[in-house]
């Protein structure tokens, strides 16, 4: 949700920032801009649209400079437009500032600044910060910056530069920010992949901290008291190549095809401490959003049905309204980014009430990883496409392992070794799924049905389709159709039935028949000949243990959504209105 990057050193800042923005574009893509500090002062170039379109017009890479900041926006306050694009300035054009987050008290601050004669050029909350710094009294820019930060309410990752200052000033509260340390140069960005080409050594900017970066300088300061803090650096083993498309047309397709390796890497994660924490509590709850919520539902089914452990799952943004939480509660929070504001709010709410937290995330430097009592890494490598595919699959792998560990099911953990082979089998169906997608291009509304473990997979399949094709898609528990949704089924409506040959198969055949009797076009994903016979079309994947069929089904559904979007010439990596890391509530 907005990507930010800054560079100070000896190289061409504008080129490094432009390249970083391209990597960060998955965080927001309605407008973008760069500011660099030159001999004559600050130069800003920005506009509405995608980075490549803007670059053609304004030639970002030709701005030069050895110090600068860049921003790619996902609009919160104010429509996507050139005026609302970041960087923003003060009245004199001596400060350039970029911001990710939401300033909750911006109206009050803006009214006060307007009374003092400040002139605003945008509708954003972010511009207020530049004017606030301008208004602050203080001997140095650092003092004015700190004093302005102390007046802000809400969430922010801010970078600012100022005329005559060969430094970048940054600050963070509830929005991610990582420092990349180089030799005689410093980087700072929302996310590690934007800096991977230049450094493998990073430092986390923690909640409520401000940073000052110069060529050989990296100072971290508490916003509350202005005191300096020390911070150890950490290294990552992600390669810069992992953030490239490697010949695939889209990141989404590349990431779907990486899934056999991802599950192997995810299963290498140690879940024993997390399992012990669960065992020591008699109240297990889970919080997550979107796809991560769907993987939590899969876990709930496994841990309850197969291990007899009661588990509640709550959409993170709803958690504080109705939860009963206390010292005996163990919360499992699932978030690929580890920064989702709704999930982090639920985690902080539960921690305040004394709950212990297990975080399951792909980003080991994230807020979730740092604030959880136990953290399990997904080990999936960077996921660049906005929609979750390989991280969802990695979540399933880790959650299966955790559930079986809790239930003491060593034989089932052993079986998980076959997961990557099962996904490889599903991937061999790409040609068939592409043809299927072609045949469905004119359809407007899709229904996904499944029972048991396959109900959350139906929800996830429908989410994938709606996110990237903008078509109506809904997932239902197979048994629920007759309680209402069946009225939506008419001639030719596609119903995608997840019907493996397990204990749900006969009831699923019943659901398929109900739909067919109303004229639906049923496409099943199955390993059962009987299901195939009852369906209009069937993606058959057989020879796999029934317990692993969710991995196969979701892989097929991801590919179906991908090919439909690609054939409609939509960009599945950057769906409209969405952003990868949702850092506002
Ligand atoms: C779906 C998707 C979103 C995320 C959700 C939570 O493809 O990507 O629904 O799953 O925003 O994100 P994380 O897992 O980062 O907390």
Head-to-tail CA distance between termini: 11 Å
The CATH H-level homologous superfamily of the largest domain: Aminohydrolase, N-terminal nucleophile (Ntn) domain
Cα Rg? 25 Å
Low-confidence stretches: none
Bound molecules: fructose -6-phosphate
Q: What is the strand content?
A: 15-25%
Would you give an account of this structure?
The protein has 585 residues and is of the alpha/beta class. The protein folds into 3 domains: 3-240, Aminohydrolase, N-terminal nucleophile (Ntn) domain (Glutamine Phosphoribosylpyrophosphate, subunit 1, domain 1, 4-Layer Sandwich), CATH 3.60.20; 245-427, Rossmann fold (3-Layer(aba) Sandwich); 429-572, 3-Layer(aba) Sandwich (Rossmann fold). The protein is 35% helix and 24% strand. The strands form 4 sheets. Strands 3-2-4-1-10-9-11-15 form an 8-stranded antiparallel sheet, covered by helices on one side. Helix 18 (505-517) links the parallel strand 23 (494-498) and strand 24. Helix 7 (259-267) runs antiparallel to helix 15, helix 9 (290-306) runs antiparallel to helix 17 (454-469) and helix 15 runs parallel beside helix 20. It is globular. Fructose -6-phosphate is lined by residues 289-292, 335-337, 340, 343, 387-388, 463, 467, 581-582. Fructose -6-phosphate binds next to helix 9 and helix 17.
Features:
about 575 residues, alpha/beta, Glutamine Phosphoribosylpyrophosphate, subunit 1, domain 1, Rossmann fold, 3 domains, eight-stranded antiparallel beta sheet, globular, binds fructose -6-phosphate
Concise summary:
35% of the residues lie in helices and 24% in strands.
